[in-house]
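During the reporting period the student researcher (J.K.) took over the structure-prediction task from the postdoctoral fellow and processed the backlog of single-chain submissions. One of the processed entries is reproduced below for the supervisory committee.
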Amino acid sequence: MAFQPNSLRAFLSHAKSSLLTAVNTSEKLTLVVGNESADLDSLTSSVLYAYLRSRSPPQNAFTPLYVPLLNIPAADLRLRPEFEAVFRHANIDASYLATLDDLPGDDGPALKPDHTRWILVDHNKLQGALGVKFASRVQGVIDHHEDEGSVTKDSDPEFRVIERCGSCTSLVFRTLKASWDKSTDASSLSSGAAHAQGDSLTTDARMTVTWDAQIAKMALASILVDTANLTAEEKVEQADRDAVKYLEAKINLAPQEAPKWDKGQFYEEIHAAKRGIDGLAFEDLLRKDYKQWTENGFILGISSVVKPLKFLAEKAINDASGDREDLFVTAIGDFMAARDLTIFAIMTTSTSEKGKFQRELYVQALAAGHAAASTFSRQSVEELRLEDHSVDILSEKPGAMQPSSEGP
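J.K. obtained the following structure tokens:
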């Protein structure tokens, strides 16, 4: 049975409760999960897919309810201040979201792989511990990264959409737009009574358009951030533009939302929240947007940080209460050792003193990974048009490669 149109808060509460019940009773589950970095696009892609698909599931769906799952422990939500900014607009808080902590541990009831189906968004290969156990249960994917060939071509009744786009959320929207329209039209015929906090079914169309506006704002957040408010010409695709147009129309249909809606201000609010990481510790900065995988017997990791390398180096020194420039390299080494990494890379994005967008790449490797790290660095320099540069606070140390930045 389809989940009737309702608030995002009511849906997430129901989905999380159903997940916990299914784990304890060995019921079937369909989970929608983003990548291991659990960034804003992974959050909104998984929630949008699960919310809309549950409102209009296919007749031969594994289960009619799709549960969005954040691919991080609950404690790591605090590392993402942009989430809190988005939650306010969607009328939810972090407690409504299912995370890895809600899956059974080794000492609890087992989540049997054959009782699950997995839908991937914002990545197309299930990695880490989830991949080891559930990779064979992946049934569909919507992603904007290079196809790794991991997801079956026969994904029916789910989707297999992998193509270039500024935001994965735009592709999720395009794929499920017809379902959204259909379920919204049907909701005008529904009946019921409003209960506490306005979260239950109601004949009042005003509630339906308000709920749609809330989910539209959540979806818009990642699209606008990932495309710099549709100004990043090298990233923006027509699917991004179409999604923004439709989602803004949803907001403008809501009497309570339309008068105060301003796309530019909304983008600036979420963008500023995402960059508001000065209070995080050095290790937390690296953990915030981190991915790890195994390749050719090496464990590799990469962190994306929205601050320049100089900021990171100063943070490492300050956290260690020292004044030695090599503390940055040492702190990176400690981060690598804790994760058994052979090669670790940091990709930064920031604005230069002249107001220009810039990227930096820093690679550090154990002796066993020097050759592979050199190849990775060289390929990245070519692909991203990077050039060697120096960061005054960083000292060259064995195993650390000079950072590179985007050229003119």
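The committee noted the following: Residues 294 and 300 are 6 Å apart (CA to CA).
J.K. will present the remaining backlog at the next meeting.
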